[in-house]
Write a structure and sequence with these properties.
Shape: flat
Structural class: mainly alpha
């Protein structure tokens, strides 16, 4: 589908085409999620439906399968150490402040973070 040819002016006349396109997207995503559920349950006995984000899924897998709190307890840092560590956290935050407008551009940067670490 040529997305540049879709606009508010022709949504109704392209309704059948667009609904078919969206249904296919939903079917594909459903198949991917079904397969992912099968993989994660088989490897870790974790129901991905109970996790809201991939980060919470990763943390659950780590805690369940790899983290030993007796050997490596998580400690709470004092103020100076905490400030030093927090200084290393940056980026990764995006917001949309103006969802509508004229002459706007959309940039898909999903792969930008791995690229920047090279």
């Amino acid at each position: 589908m040529d997305h540049s040819q879709v606009g508010l002016h022709n949504l109704l006349e392209r309704k059948v085409e667009l609904v078919g396109y969206m249904k296919q997207d939903v079917r594909l995503l459903g198949g991917i999620m079904y397969k992912a559920q099968h993989i994660y349950w088989g490897l870790f006995h974790i129901d991905i439906v109970t996790k809201m984000t991939s980060a919470s899924l990763a943390l659950s897998i780590f805690r369940q399968s790899f983290y030993d709190p007796m050997r490596n307890p998580i400690s709470i840092s004092n103020g100076n150490v905490d400030s030093f560590i927090r200084g290393g956290y940056y980026g990764g935050h995006t917001d949309v402040y103006k969802p509508r407008g004229e002459n706007l551009y959309y940039y898909d940067i999903n792969s930008l973070y791995p690229y920047l670490t090279l």
